[in-house]
Amino acid sequence: MSRPGAALLTAPLLLFLLATFVAPIGAFLWRGVTDTEVAPVLPRTVAALAAWDGTATPGEEAFAALVADLRAARAGNPTGLARAAARLNADRPGFRGLLPTTARRVAAPFEGPARDAVLAASGEWADPEAWGAIRHAAGPLSAFHLLAALDLRRDATGSVAPVPEDQRIFRAVLARSLWISLLVTGCCLLLGWPLAWLIATARGWPATLLLAAVMLPFWISLVVRTAAWMVLLQREGLVNAALAAMGLIEAPLPLMLNRFAVVLAMVHILLPFMVLPLVAAFRALDPFLPRAAASLGAAPWWAFLRVTLPLCLPGIGAGCLLVFIQALGFYVTPALLGGPNDQMLAWFVGFYATRSVNWGLAAALSILLLAAVGLCVALYGRLAGFRRSGAA
């Protein structure tokens, strides 16, 4: 078939994927690098602050522009004023009440400088940081949400600095997510290696039965499997009941709402994704190579390190990559089985998207998660590339 004909056959599928997958995700991620709530409501103020150095309170021009913008927004766009206040409140707490209060107090005509009227409405306008928050939200492109996802912020002068220590959260959450994903990947590798070897070396119906047992969890919903672990691990669950019946414990063990439950359930769910690539690698392994190494005097452990392990590295890398990437984006299992200190980055994406309706920060956290996954894939590709070059 010619190339134009093949392109026409695949065009409907590509358009479908573009319309239902790529475009919605791209539109969501775009929110993480845009800032469009403040500039349409305070256009004169944003323009007046464009040349401001941020070292001191701006001049009379900025105060007059703020008064004009607040009067116009209060009269014709109160909803936009509320959205702008919510956006500025994310940068500087207190703006949710400061902006509408100031708009109400300067709505009536007054005599004298606009600076005096605004400062009379609220003394917070004497702080350059308040004006800096408006300038940072000028848009249309902004790094505000991405900086917030890294526990960073800009001060009034535009310099990037860490947020106060009691407000830092996302770096710790990212580190926790990476650590849990690495721990789950390591456990899956340790448990999956002997199981995959057993499946690969078995013959006849035992091999089929073992492979079917590995594939069986794919037929059951992720939520159902997580709920099953809740039944097993809760204080009055089957595990505690069995241990109490055998006289091994006197009081129920805290097996749920902790890191142990999260890792245990994630290993159970993701183990097949480690086993299947390992089975394929083991079945492609020539069984005579370890024997040849042994016949040349190599000890079993040396033959494993020098012969078996290098030949199985593609399967190990593929299994670890599959498990790690999926573990990094887990949401349901930590949410149901983990405690407050066991939630991963995906939980915070869901929280800011559905509960606090902060789509910008949710998108920025998604970009951070996507960047971590992309880095892992690039690292794997780099290592695989070196391996291919060495083999060549």
Amino-to-carboxy terminus distance: 33 Å
Which percent bin holds the helix content?
Answer: 55-70%
**Relative strand content:** under 5%
Ranges where pLDDT stays below 50 over 5 or more residues in a row are 386-392
Tell how many strands the DSSP assignment holds. Answer: 2
User: What is the fold named in CATH at topology level of the largest domain?
Assistant: MetI-like fold
Query: Judging from the principal axes of the Cα atoms, what is the shape?
Result: elongated
The gyration radius over C-alpha positions equals 29 Å
Which structural class do the helices and strands define? mainly alpha
Reported CATH architecture of the largest domain: Orthogonal Bundle
Name the strands of the widest sheet in spatial order. 1-2
